[in-house]
From TrEMBL:
Keyword entries, A-Z: Signal
Signal peptide: 1-29
Protein name: SLH domain-containing protein
Length: 476
């Protein structure tokens, strides 16, 4: 009987090498080799059915409910089952083939690492003779060991992105008529290199460096005031933070400065530069997120908005989850909120997700706030709608970076009153409502092409401000 506290006969060197081989950029990209398989993922029920049927060699006990496995552990189970296909029914083989497709590259890494781990020093010397014609000197071997030790601790990933965004905006003329103008939002290349240094089993240090170069204005749009460059400015972004965990407490921590991009965020999509601390508590399915610090929304009005957020996440099963919570943020003049008082704006929200099958899923959310209108600009702020924000998103299939020729289609509706919604969601204007149709495609492994068109209107004036995008991304 195999205990769930063990991962088999893989040596420490193999496991650490696996960490280097894993990477984590995603538009549904392949997860890192040592990344956790999310609670509620379909893989758990699939392998448990095989284990319960006693067709998985060396595995006699099903995975306990709430036990979280890494992709490495899951790959070991699937690899073991693959060796016993002859004793499986057609239904069991079909389930196993689906698992094998999901963890195919993880199993390949597992096989390679086992081979490397089984090589003893004599075999390594023999390999050196075969490849280089001579063995390494003691000094060379010592240097290789140091390099290997560093490789065990350091991992690097990133992407290169070419983005072209444009607005089609209705602008009012002196005679009251409207004129449709085309305006560039982003016309740039963006390169990001993200490095992680593993300090020990629980803590890691991260340095994320990015470079943006605008093709529209070149150096005259260079950001030089210490803030991050916007989408159409040239400049460098530098983020540094640490991540760690306290296993006995079931607590994960993130401290420093990072780009916060999250479809759940403070309850809605969010994209900002964040400085502060984020704590995640929860050993099983239910998780609590505490985030405190300040965010830069790149709106040019106020650089740092103080924010404290408490949100909760619960996946009922592999098809349904709910996300809800509250946040307290500095009032923002860019959102027509009163900044004279000392109060923060209180937001409250809920967000649900349902997966119909392997192709279709839907997300829906609602958010509101107690924001007061800006009294210094009451002529404008007094006319702004103060209603709950809401959104509905339907997804079909999904582009997977590790699977060429996969694609995804998204239909998105948003209603975002400035007084109720603290962020500019998905690169759209403040105080807007819109319908967006998007398409993404993976022509080759780690290459993503995506485009969308957004039919956008101001909530109060109904002025048109459509946005469309063409983008290519290359992940490494």
């Amino acid at each position: 009987m195999r205990s769930w506290m063990n991962v088999g006969k893989i040596g420490a060197a193999a496991v650490m090498t696996a960490a280097v081989m894993s990477y984590g950029q995603s538009a549904e990209a392949a997860n890192g080799f040592l990344a956790e398989v999310p609670v509620g993922d379909w893989s758990y029920s699939a392998v448990n059915e095989l284990i319960t049927a006693k067709v998985v060699p060396d595995y006699a006990v099903a995975i306990p409910e709430g036990r979280v496995l890494s992709r490495l552990e899951m790959a070991m189970i699937v690899d073991s089952a693959m060796k016993n296909q002859a004793n499986m029914t057609d239904v069991q083989q079909a389930a196993l083939n689906k698992l094998n497709n999901e963890y195919y590259y993880d199993i390949k890494k597992l096989t390679l690492l086992n081979r490397l781990d089984n090589l003893d020093n004599n075999q390594m010397d023999k390999l050196n003779n075969q490849q280089a014609g001579e063995t390494f000197t003691k000094e060379e071997k010592a240097g290789l060991k140091k390099a290997a030790a560093l490789a065990d601790k350091l991992s690097i990933n990133g992407y290169a992105r070419i983005r072209n965004d444009h607005f089609l905006t209705e602008e009012r003329q002196a005679d009251g008529s409207k004129k449709l103008n085309r305006k560039t939002r982003a016309n740039m290349v963006h390169i990001a290199v993200n490095s992680t240094y593993k300090v020990n089993d629980n803590w890691a240090a991260h340095a994320d460096i990015g470079y943006r170069n605008s093709f529209s204005g070149f150096d005259e749009l260079r950001r030089g005031d210490g803030r991050s460059p916007s989408e159409n400015e040239t400049g460098i972004t530098i983020d540094g933070y640490v991540t760690g965990k306290f296993p006995k407490l079931g607590l994960d921590a993130k401290i420093g400065k990072w780009n916060e991009w999250n479809i759940y965020g403070w309850g809605m999509d969010i994209d900002c530069d964040f400085s502060g601390i984020q704590l995640v508590q929860g050993k099983k399915k239910f998780k609590t997120f505490f985030t405190g610090g300040q965010m830069d929304l790149w709106d040019g009005v106020k650089n740092k908005e103080k924010v404290t957020s408490l949100r909760f996440f619960y996946p009922f099963d592999d098809k349904n989850d709910i996300n809800f919570g509250t946040s307290w943020s500095s009032p923002m003049t860019s959102r027509y909120q009163d900044t004279n008082g000392r109060h923060r704006v209180f937001y409250y929200y809920t967000h649900a997700h349902h997966k119909f099958d392997n192709n279709w899923s839907v997300r829906a959310g609602i958010i509101n706030s107690n924001a007061h209108r800006d009294q210094d600009n009451i002529e404008v702020a007094g006319k702004k709608t103060k209603k709950p924000g809401r959104w509905l998103q339907i997804d079909y299939k999904g582009a997977k970076l590790d699977k060429p020729n996969t694609y995804g289609i998204t239909l998105d509706y948003r209603y975002e009153p400035a007084l109720s919604w603290p962020t500019v969601t998905d690169w759209c204007s403040i105080n807007s409502k819109f319908l967006r149709l998007g398409f993404s495609y993976v022509p080759a492994k780690n290459i993503l092409l995506d485009t969308f068109y957004t039919w956008q209107r101001d909530i109060d004036t109904n002025d048109r401000n459509d946005l469309y995008r063409f983008q290519a991304q290359f992940f490494f």
